[in-house]
Amino acid sequence: MKGETSTWLGYAGENLAVARLSLGQNYLNACLQNTQQCIEKSLKALVIEKDLAFRKTHNIQELAGQLAEAGLKTGITEDECDLIDAIYLPSKYPMSNVLPEAKASTDVCRQCLDIAERVVGVVRKCLDETGD
Fold it and tell me: pTM of the predicted model, to two decimals?
């Protein structure tokens, strides 16, 4: 595995840990922001490892689509991409919220944490299977 890939995965792991801690303390926006960042960094790690064109984007749908076009599994569905993309700005900035019921909830946080944990696992498995 490339050193840069490992660094991105390490940051993703930190984001996942912070998301879990945030949920435990009922810091819901921090939880959502860190789950989004975990997923983004995990997908970017795979982009880097596979020498795909690196795009400066926070759009999970775009990153997952790029990886799917390259024949790589990401562990995230289109609907889940839409959810994670929908939480990006509202979890960072106070603005009109697009989340169900117009605010973060523990249920949405748990759902996003589940997605992030799955994506991290699929990305790691993909890297392990290819011998990288």
Answer: 0.91
